[in-house]
Amino acid sequence: MSDPAGPKIYLLPNLMTAGNLCSGFLATLNILEGALLENTDPAAAIYRFQFAIGCILAACIFDALDGRVARLGGNESAFGREFDSIADIVSFGVAPALMVHRIVLHETPKLGWMVASIYLVCGALRLARFNCLAAADSAAANREFKGFPIPAAAGLVASLTLFMLWLSNNRLEVWLAKWVFPPLLLFLSWMMFSGFK
């Protein structure tokens, strides 16, 4: 039976989730702006990409805080869980996939598009499965996670991309782009949707 007053919406945890969502949106904007500047002002483009990576890492901090704040205040809710997943798919799905495609995989457009899309879809599937399990049995969902968490996957991808930007035009950068990132993204995609606890 649904609550006639509507879902419970708690201010502080949802402010943390909003911070996560805004960080993901800001990361996406900076990736797009960096892509536009690549040919005319490469230094500004790299700054935009680095700022976008910082936004993804800031989203990880907001994501860690929202659940803790909700649990500490006894303010966990179905609304908060759904809002958190929407924010996560932007900050840890769309932004990292777009970033890796633009910075790392753009030289192989078809393969890059496919790998980035697989990462995004598997991240969304992982979040949807988590929400279904949590709705069915919130106690069981809180006891164990299945699959690699999408914020951890995004943090790893963002950190490696930052390392690549730091190398800037080194031969190792090319090697990382061609031989490390596509298999890594596919592995993370599989791990996110896997049944591993």
Report on this structure.
This protein has 197 residues and is mainly alpha-helical. The chain has a single domain, classed as Up-down Bundle (Four Helix Bundle (Hemerythrin (Met), subunit A)). Helix content is 81%, strand content 0%. It has 7 helices and no strands. Helix 1 runs antiparallel to helix 2, helix 2 (42-72) packs antiparallel against helix 6 (150-167) and helix 3 packs antiparallel against helix 4 (109-136). The protein is globular, with a radius of gyration of 18 Å.
How many structural domains does the protein architecture include? Answer: 1
Q: What is the fold-level CATH name, i.e. the topology? A: Four Helix Bundle (Hemerythrin (Met), subunit A)
On the 0 to 100 scale, the average pLDDT is 85
Second rung of CATH, namely the architecture = Up-down Bundle
Helix and strand sequence = HHHHHHH
Helical content (DSSP H or I, runs of 4+): over 70%
Helix/strand structural class = mainly alpha
Tell me the distance between the termini. Answer: 32 Å
Nearest-angstrom radius of gyration? 18 Å
Layout: helices, strands, pairs:
Elements lengths: L10 H27 L4 H31 L5 H26 L5 H28 L1 H6 L6 H18 L3 H23 L4
Helix pairs in contact: 1-2, 1-3, 2-3, 2-6, 3-4, 3-6, 4-7, 6-7
